[in-house]
Design brief:
Strand content: 5-15%
Radius of gyration: 25 Å
Shape: elongated
Distance between the termini: 32 Å
Mean pLDDT: 84
Number of domains: 2
CATH architecture of the largest domain: Alpha-Beta Complex
CATH topology of the largest domain: Spore Coat Polysaccharide Biosynthesis Protein SpsA, Chain A
CATH superfamily of the largest domain: Spore Coat Polysaccharide Biosynthesis Protein SpsA, Chain A
Low-confidence stretches: none
Oligomer: single chain
Order of helices and strands: EHEHEHEHEHEHHEHHH
C-alpha cells in the first residue's frame, strides 16, 4: 500500500484540487493507496473541506489537531498513522506535483530506501525563499555528509522500515533523510516539478535560516555525541579550566615581574569564572551521561542497529 501524507494549515482553497490530482495519479499506479490529511489547527475552513472529502472517499484519512503544532508534528502524526509500506509526504499548498510520484516509486524499485525531491526550478521568491534555501541546503549537506540538493522539499518517498522508530521534534522534518542515513538507508534524489503558490500565503520567512542553523547543531550533536555527551562537555570543561590556569599564571607574572597587585587587574576574576565554568561543564557532562544511559536502558533501546542476519532466529536478551 502507498500512504501519502499531506499536512494542512489554512489551505482550504487548494485541498480539493490537490486531492483530485493526487488521487488520479495514485489510481494509475495500480496499488492500494490512502491519503492522510493532517489538519494542523487550520482556521480558514480547511476542516470542513477535509471532512467532506473523507465522507466522499474511503481512501481519505483525516487527523485534526487541537491547535497548530507545526509541520514536523504533522509529519510525525502522518508517519505514526500511515499503513503503507511506502510513505510519501508532500506539501498541502499544491506546489509539489503529484505527477512526480511514479518517478519516485521507480527509483525505490531500483533498490533505494529514500527518494528525495529536488526543486531545481523552484517557483518562489528568489530573495526570501530561494537564496536562503540554497545556502541552508549546502550547509546541511556539508555538515551532515548527506549529499542532497534540496532538504526542504517535502515531496519524498520512504520505505517504512527506514522511518520506523524515528522520532521528530521541533522543526526537524527537513533532517529526516539525515536520520535515515544513520539507519543505513540508501538515498537518492530526483528532479521534481514545483508550482507557484496558487492561493494563501507562505508560512515561512527569513527567520527560518536561524532555526535551520540551530536545528543543524542539534543534528550534528546527535550524530556524533548522542551516546557519549561527556566528550563534548568534558572537552569544553577542560578547555575552560586550562584557560583559567593561563589567566592565573598571567596574573602571577604581572605581580612578580611588573609589581602589579592582583586587585588592579581583572585576571583573578577571569580565573575564577573560567575555572567554575569548566567545572560546571564537566558536571553537566556527567549528568548527560546519566540521562543517556537512562534513555537507552529504561526503553530497552540498543546502541546498534542490525540490518539482517543469517541462521540467527533467537532474539537477543533485553
Amino acid at each position: 500500500m502507498l500512504s501519502v501524507i499531506i499536512p494542512i494549515y489554512n489551505e482550504c482553497e487548494t485541498i480539493r484540487l490537490l486531492f483530485e490530482k493526487t488521487a488520479e495519479v495514485l489510481r494509475k499506479i495500480g496499488q492500494p493507496w490512502e491519503i492522510l490529511f493532517i489538519n494542523d489547527g487550520s482556521k480558514d475552513g480547511s476542516e470542513e473541506v477535509l471532512d467532506a472529502l473523507a465522507n466522499e472517499h474511503s481512501e481519505v484519512k483525516v487527523l485534526h489537531f487541537r491547535r497548530n503544532f507545526g509541520q514536523t508534528a504533522a509529519m510525525m502524526a502522518g508517519f505514526d498513522h500511515a499503513r503503507g509500506e511506502i510513505i510519501i509526504p508532500m506539501d498541502g499548498d499544491y506546489q509539489n506535483d503529484p505527477e512526480d510520484i511514479p518517478k519516485m516509486l521507480a527509483k525505490l524499485d531500483e533498490g533505494y530506501d529514500v527518494v528525495s525531491g529536488w526543486r531545481r526550478d523552484r517557483q518562489d521568491n528568489a530573495i526570501k525563499r530561494n537564496f536562503p534555501s540554497i545556502m541552508a541546503n549546502k550547509l546541511i549537506s556539508f555538515v551532515s555528509g548527506v549529499p542532497l540538493q534540496d532538504f526542504g522539499c517535502s515531496l519524498k518517498a520512504y520505505r517504512r522500515e527506514v522511518v520506523e522508530g524515528v522520532r521528530l521534534y521541533g522543526e526537524m522534518h527537513r533532517f529526516l533523510p539525515v536520520y535515515t542515513s544513520w539507519h543505513g538507508a540508501k538515498i537518492t534524489e530526483v528532479v521534481v516539478g514545483h508550482f507557484a503558490r496558487r492561493a494563501g500565503q507562505s508560512k515561512y520567512g527569513l527567520e527560518r535560516i536561524l532555526k535551520v542553523l540551530l536545528d543543524l547543531m542539534v543534528v550534528k550533536f546527535l550524530d556524533r555525541h548522542a551516546q557519549k555527551p561527556m566528550y563534548v562537555f568534558g572537552i569544553c570543561g577542560f578547555l575552560m579550566i586550562g584557560i583559567s590556569v593561563l589567566f592565573a599564571l598571567w596574573a602571577f607574572a604581572l605581580y612578580i615581574f611588573a609589581g602589579k597587585p592582583f586587585i588592579t587587574t581583572p585576571l583573578p576574576g577571569l580565573t575564577v569564572s573560567t575555572f567554575m565554568t569548566g567545572v560546571i561543564c564537566v558536571l553537566m557532562g556527567l549528568l548527560a551521561e546519566m540521562i543517556t544511559r537512562t534513555f537507552y536502558e529504561s526503553q530497552g533501546k540498543r546502541i546498534y542497529l542490525v540490518r539482517e542476519s543469517r541462521n540467527l532466529e533467537a532474539q537477543p536478551r533485553s
